[in-house]
From TrEMBL:
It comes from the Bacteria. One of its GO terms (molecular function) is DNA binding. It comes from Hymenobacter persicinus. InterPro entries: Cro/C1-type_HTH, Lambda_DNA-bd_dom_sf. CDD domains: HTH_XRE. This is XRE family transcriptional regulator.
Amino acid sequence: MPRRAPASQNVISRLRAWFGLRQEDVAFYANVSPELVQAAESGRRSLSSNLLIGLLPLLQQLPPPETPVVAAAVLPPCLAPGTAAPDAAALDFRRRVCLHQAGRLRTQAWAQCSATRARVAEHWAQALPALLAAYPAPVNPTDPDDAELHAGLIRRLHYHARPLPAEDVTRWHLLQARIVALEAEAATLEATLG
């Protein structure tokens, strides 16, 4: 039995995460059944050529897989020799408070989904010109069903690429700044304690 690829390495998982798609959406763009997409994403079936060909316009918009981010260096202490050691309990308590607050802010950011929506909307906006060029016209323009299917596809592409309201984007950036600051403070305190 073939081993299932980790979700981060599965091309359908990456595609869904990058563009914020459901499996049904992937099936729509590839013109295959949702069951085939589900089986391919879970690793129960290999990626068929029909699925890959149908998803090619979207797949070409994916960036290469991410590389891990290296943590910032901790500044050396600049205390005078003979300075008393800090109160480890107080530093550890503050570290735990920072991590707790950062966790609550992350939950808040995920609850409003602004981070995900903003990232996904940006990905769609960047990919929209290439995707519109990849779907230039209905396969059979005289067939009303083909024309309607193509028009639906174009509407869906524009819908996914719609921008977020400025207040949602601002709220997300402020939350991210607070999360980064709290996590950096917790990491510095941990380094001091270690």
